[in-house]
Write a structure and sequence with these properties.
two-stranded antiparallel ribbon; alpha+beta; about 25% strand; 6 strands
Length: about 130
Protein backbone atom coordinates (compact mmCIF):
# COMPACT_ATOMS: atom_id res chain seq x y z
CA UNK A 1 0.00 0.00 0.00
CA UNK A 2 1.28 3.48 -0.88
CA UNK A 3 1.60 6.41 1.49
CA UNK A 4 -1.43 8.66 1.93
CA UNK A 5 -1.48 12.38 2.70
CA UNK A 6 -3.95 12.33 5.60
CA UNK A 7 -4.69 14.84 8.30
CA UNK A 8 -4.82 13.89 11.99
CA UNK A 9 -8.42 12.67 11.50
CA UNK A 10 -7.45 10.34 8.65
CA UNK A 11 -9.07 12.64 6.05
CA UNK A 12 -7.46 13.04 2.63
CA UNK A 13 -7.39 16.16 0.41
CA UNK A 14 -7.85 18.44 3.41
CA UNK A 15 -11.48 17.38 3.54
CA UNK A 16 -12.22 18.78 0.09
CA UNK A 17 -14.66 16.97 -2.18
CA UNK A 18 -12.60 14.94 -4.67
CA UNK A 19 -15.58 14.45 -7.00
CA UNK A 20 -16.26 18.20 -7.13
CA UNK A 21 -12.77 18.80 -8.54
CA UNK A 22 -13.90 17.02 -11.70
CA UNK A 23 -17.08 19.11 -11.96
CA UNK A 24 -15.83 22.58 -11.06
CA UNK A 25 -12.91 24.93 -11.55
CA UNK A 26 -12.82 25.61 -7.81
CA UNK A 27 -12.12 23.41 -4.81
CA UNK A 28 -15.26 22.62 -2.79
CA UNK A 29 -15.13 21.69 0.87
CA UNK A 30 -16.65 18.39 1.87
CA UNK A 31 -18.93 17.90 4.86
CA UNK A 32 -18.51 15.35 7.63
CA UNK A 33 -22.08 14.08 7.18
CA UNK A 34 -21.13 12.95 3.65
CA UNK A 35 -18.08 10.82 4.41
CA UNK A 36 -16.82 7.58 2.88
CA UNK A 37 -13.74 5.47 3.54
CA UNK A 38 -11.59 3.96 0.82
CA UNK A 39 -8.15 2.31 0.97
CA UNK A 40 -7.37 3.65 4.43
CA UNK A 41 -8.49 7.24 3.86
CA UNK A 42 -11.64 9.15 4.78
CA UNK A 43 -13.14 11.22 1.99
CA UNK A 44 -15.62 14.06 2.49
CA UNK A 45 -18.16 15.28 -0.04
CA UNK A 46 -20.28 18.37 -0.49
CA UNK A 47 -23.42 16.32 -1.07
CA UNK A 48 -24.87 12.80 -1.23
CA UNK A 49 -24.66 12.64 -5.04
CA UNK A 50 -20.91 13.18 -5.01
CA UNK A 51 -20.50 10.60 -2.26
CA UNK A 52 -22.45 8.06 -4.35
CA UNK A 53 -20.36 8.85 -7.44
CA UNK A 54 -17.19 8.25 -5.46
CA UNK A 55 -18.43 5.01 -3.94
CA UNK A 56 -19.28 3.74 -7.43
CA UNK A 57 -15.78 4.49 -8.81
CA UNK A 58 -13.32 5.50 -6.06
CA UNK A 59 -10.20 4.96 -8.20
CA UNK A 60 -11.52 7.49 -10.72
CA UNK A 61 -11.71 10.25 -8.11
CA UNK A 62 -9.01 9.45 -5.53
CA UNK A 63 -6.09 11.87 -5.77
CA UNK A 64 -3.03 10.61 -7.59
CA UNK A 65 0.15 9.99 -5.60
CA UNK A 66 -1.76 9.45 -2.38
CA UNK A 67 -2.72 13.12 -2.32
CA UNK A 68 0.91 14.28 -2.13
CA UNK A 69 2.38 16.95 -4.39
CA UNK A 70 3.58 15.39 -7.66
CA UNK A 71 6.10 18.20 -8.16
CA UNK A 72 7.68 17.34 -4.80
CA UNK A 73 7.96 13.73 -5.91
CA UNK A 74 9.85 14.79 -9.04
CA UNK A 75 11.89 17.72 -7.74
CA UNK A 76 12.76 16.48 -4.26
CA UNK A 77 12.11 12.76 -4.41
CA UNK A 78 9.84 12.96 -1.40
CA UNK A 79 6.23 13.24 -0.33
CA UNK A 80 5.39 16.92 0.09
CA UNK A 81 2.21 18.40 1.59
CA UNK A 82 -0.44 20.03 -0.55
CA UNK A 83 -2.88 22.88 -0.57
CA UNK A 84 -6.19 21.33 -1.68
CA UNK A 85 -7.20 24.61 -3.33
CA UNK A 86 -4.33 24.20 -5.82
CA UNK A 87 -5.12 21.35 -8.17
CA UNK A 88 -5.14 20.13 -11.74
CA UNK A 89 -7.07 17.42 -13.53
CA UNK A 90 -4.55 15.88 -15.92
CA UNK A 91 -5.19 12.79 -18.01
CA UNK A 92 -8.30 12.14 -15.92
CA UNK A 93 -6.33 12.20 -12.66
CA UNK A 94 -6.62 14.56 -9.71
CA UNK A 95 -3.30 16.20 -8.82
CA UNK A 96 -2.95 18.31 -5.67
CA UNK A 97 -0.03 20.74 -5.32
CA UNK A 98 2.01 22.47 -2.65
CA UNK A 99 1.17 26.19 -2.50
CA UNK A 100 2.51 27.87 0.61
CA UNK A 101 5.64 29.49 1.96
CA UNK A 102 8.91 27.72 1.14
CA UNK A 103 12.00 29.07 2.84
CA UNK A 104 9.97 32.16 3.74
CA UNK A 105 8.78 32.90 0.20
CA UNK A 106 5.49 32.04 -1.57
CA UNK A 107 5.89 28.96 -3.75
CA UNK A 108 3.19 27.40 -5.92
CA UNK A 109 4.47 24.13 -7.38
CA UNK A 110 1.63 23.98 -9.91
CA UNK A 111 3.23 26.87 -11.79
CA UNK A 112 6.47 24.89 -12.18
CA UNK A 113 4.45 21.80 -13.10
CA UNK A 114 2.63 23.71 -15.83
CA UNK A 115 5.92 24.44 -17.61
CA UNK A 116 5.95 20.83 -18.91
CA UNK A 117 3.01 18.89 -17.43
CA UNK A 118 3.26 15.83 -19.68
CA UNK A 119 6.92 15.21 -18.90
CA UNK A 120 6.43 16.00 -15.22
CA UNK A 121 3.66 13.40 -14.97
CA UNK A 122 5.88 10.78 -16.62
CA UNK A 123 8.62 11.55 -14.08
CA UNK A 124 6.22 11.51 -11.11
CA UNK A 125 4.74 8.19 -12.22
CA UNK A 126 8.24 6.71 -12.52
CA UNK A 127 9.34 7.97 -9.08
CA UNK A 128 6.14 7.21 -7.15
CA UNK A 129 6.70 3.46 -6.63
CA UNK A 130 9.87 4.28 -4.67
CA UNK A 131 8.82 7.57 -3.04
CA UNK A 132 5.32 6.37 -2.14
CA UNK A 133 6.39 2.99 -0.75
Amino acid sequence: MSKLNLDDRGVIAGGYDVVAYFKSTAAVEGRSEFEATHAGAKYRFANADNKRAFEAAPEKYAPAFGGFCPFGIVAMGQCAPTNPKTFRIQDGRLLLFFNDLWEGKPFDTSAKWDEDPKQMLVKADAAWPTVGA
